[in-house]
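Lecture 7, part B: from sequences to assemblies.

Below are the input chains for today's worked example.
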Amino acid sequence: MRFALVPTLLLGAAVSTVTAAPQLERLAASDGDTVLAALQKQAEDALKQQEAAKEAVSKRGACHLGNAAIRRDWEHLSSPEKKDYIRAVNCLWDLPSVDPAFSAARNHFDDYVAVHMNQTNTIHGTANFLTWHRYLVYLWEQKLRNKCGYKGYLPYWNWFKYQTDLHQSPVFDGSDTSLGGDGQFFAHNGSVVGAGRIWLPSGAGGGCVKSGPFVNRTINIGPVQPAMQGYTPVFTDVKAYNPRCQRRDLTMAASTSTFTASNLLNVTLGLASATVGHFQDELQGSLGTLRLHGAGHYAMGGDGSDVFTSLNDPAFYLHHAMIDRVYWIWQLLHPAEANKVNGTITFRNNPPSRVGTVNDWLDMGKLGPQVQIKDVLNTLGGGPLCYIYL
Ligand SMILES: [Cu+2]
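Predicted structure of the full complex, as structure tokens:
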């Protein structure tokens, strides 16, 4: 796919001051990880400028660059740091459910799956998609720290490394410092995605995750709509208790084709970066297209490919941290658009619904306090968030 530049007029000063066109042309010819590193540098420069400007005109808030949490690439955590994260996830799995109204949730790990499943149709393809998921993974991070003694912050899965062989990825290599490896081989006919318009061939897995620190864990909710063929969803009562192993099918057909420099540039500096509406639509993909958000889910396959209950795969949180990181980079590079939302309050406006606003509440059930979208647009203060990405 050819990378297209954003007309400078569309963006005002935002991008034109940050990146010159020749640099963009050069980036477009690089690999995804090089582009990501360049974008990160630009975002950091923009962040420093914006923070310096803020500081000049007002008293500094409690959160600033000097004390913000730093979320890092899973690969860049030390082994003890990775093991501490894994220990804390296991700790959440051992804590009791906090929502007795959802009987299939048997522990606190399940509570997150339940809250997401219950709201699936009002948090995807909606005005709140980016902020709802931002706040959810923040609550997950805080719970790991406050209830389970995790010392670090939420790591992310860098999509732009190992995308041609996910078995080599430190997130998925099956070692005791990964979030588990591939599933056992399970013969199936690939996955159907993109509203039934895209077929992805199966990988070498599809069955129970066979290695890594969570092999003996049981998941209890769903599946509701797994993309992987041969994985039968619960049709009768999606809220029913359904204990089983977690399944995965590392699917390079999704990751190799989509985690590209061209797709990353398109949403951060290209045509699809012009407005928040363009950005979020391109990030999520539309009917018949596979894009960054979907590709991460379908690259995990199995339980991770279920739009309702993909949180059953513990790598969900690292995938959505990466979504949030790209959103964070985009916000920093597009300050005039950064605090806007676009869309309605139902999945691709089906059924038709009102337009979403920054005053809408983000409902996390019993996972944490409700906040408004405007409270989580900025990761550096003005609300509960205080973090950056590195
Ligand atoms: Cu979701």
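Note for the exam: Strands lie at 69-71, 183-185, 191-193, 198-200, 206-209, 361-362, 371-372, 387-389. Keep this in mind when comparing with the next example.
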